[in-house]
């Protein structure tokens, strides 16, 4: 995201890749990626303020997310907001975003898996409460990607769900998370196995990466995704330009993820 998938969810994600991002591979086993989620009362504390106030406090904590305690605070406040206003997708989205960020910095495998699984549960609650919201489609897809990375047996089942959710989100609002639907879909199509095992499609990935850059050309994870797609399609000179642009943008960014974006760009350039 901005794992960056895809995250890169570090985008995203860098879930996000976005080193939030997703790593896809062939899996030996298979498990369901979606299960009946627990009720919101199990996922979130009782609201301590109005939904609008909680969202404002969550955004303030998110802006300070380089402090691990603030990232956790952003998650908790967002979850409270979702419980206070169930039909508002912003609380669910903020909670998954914060979980993805925390997962990217968590070293304990059990804690990472719990963050991924609860992110999926929050995404499912979002879909139930606000079924037409592109925010719900996008962040549930990102959460499924996180879960697939942490529990590879769910990857095969997750892939078609993710493709459907991201295409739907892109049709409804391509600007979610600064071109997030196209960015995440591009990385998925690049890293997933191809037919008949999966939806992998390098040419389609390039189209989606260009769509992400069109939506937000100044967002470094979009340029990183474009560079990866160009290189995968044999366009090395253009890929180098995209990676160089990603580096330039990252070095000029004040976001907490900027150092990681710059590191990814330098690695690709060298």
Distance between the termini: 22 Å
Rg, Å, rounded:
17 Å
The amount of helix comes to 55-70%
Q: Major sheet: size, sense and barrel closure?
A: none
What is the helix/strand order? Answer: HHHHHHHHHHHH
- Percent strand equals under 5%
Structural class: mainly alpha
- The mean pLDDT is 88
Low-confidence sequence ranges: 1-28
The outline comes out as globular
H/I helix tally: 12
Number of strands: 0
Overview in brief:
The two termini are 22 Å apart.
Write up this protein.
- The two termini are 22 Å apart.
- The model is unreliable at 1-28 (pLDDT under 50).
- By secondary structure, the chain is an all-alpha fold.
- It contains twelve helices and no strands.
- Helix 5 packs antiparallel against helix 6, helix 6 packs antiparallel against helix 7 (155-172) and helix 8 (180-191) runs parallel beside helix 10.
- The radius of gyration is 17 Å and the shape is globular.
- The longest helix is centred in the middle third of the chain and has 21 residues, at 109-129.
Tag the structure with descriptive keywords.
single chain, 270 residues, mainly alpha, 12 helices, 64% helix, 0% strand, globular, disordered N terminus
Helices and strands in order, then pairings?
Blueprint: H1 40-43, H2 51-63, H3 68-84, H4 89-103, H5 109-129, H6 134-150, H7 155-172, H8 180-191, H9 202-215, H10 220-232, H11 236-251, H12 258-269
Helix pairs in contact: 2-3, 2-4, 3-4, 4-5, 4-6, 5-6, 6-7, 7-8, 8-9, 8-10, 9-10, 10-11, 10-12, 11-12
């Amino acid at each position: 995201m901005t794992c960056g998938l895809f995250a890169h969810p570090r985008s995203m994600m860098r879930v996000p890749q976005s080193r939030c991002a997703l790593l896809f591979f062939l899996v030996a086993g298979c498990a369901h990626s979606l299960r009946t989620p627990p009720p919101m009362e199990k996922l979130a504390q009782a609201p301590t303020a109005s939904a609008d106030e909680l969202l404002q406090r969550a955004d303030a904590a998110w802006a300070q997310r380089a402090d691990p305690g603030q990232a956790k605070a952003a998650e908790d406040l967002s979850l409270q907001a979702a419980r206070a206003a169930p039909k508002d997708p912003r609380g669910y989205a903020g909670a998954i975003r914060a979980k993805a960020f925390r997962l990217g910095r968590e070293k304990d495998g059990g804690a990472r898996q719990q963050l991924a699984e609860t992110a999926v549960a929050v995404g499912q609650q979002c879909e139930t409460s606000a079924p037409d919201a592109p925010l719900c489609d996008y962040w549930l897809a990102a959460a499924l990607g996180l879960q697939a990375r942490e529990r590879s047996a769910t990857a095969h089942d997750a892939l078609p769900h993710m493709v459907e959710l991201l295409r739907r989100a892109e049709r409804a609002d391509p600007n979610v998370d600064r071109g997030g639907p196209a960015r995440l879909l591009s990385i998925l199509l690049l890293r997933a196995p191809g037919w008949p095992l999966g939806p992998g499609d390098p040419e389609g990935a390039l189209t989606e990466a260009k769509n992400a850059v069109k939506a937000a050309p100044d967002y470094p994870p979009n340029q990183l995704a474009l560079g990866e797609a160009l290189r995968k399609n044999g366009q090395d000179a253009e890929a180098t330009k995209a990676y160089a642009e990603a580096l330039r943008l990252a070095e000029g960014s004040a976001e907490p993820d900027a150092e990681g974006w710059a590191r990814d760009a330098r690695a690709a350039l060298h």
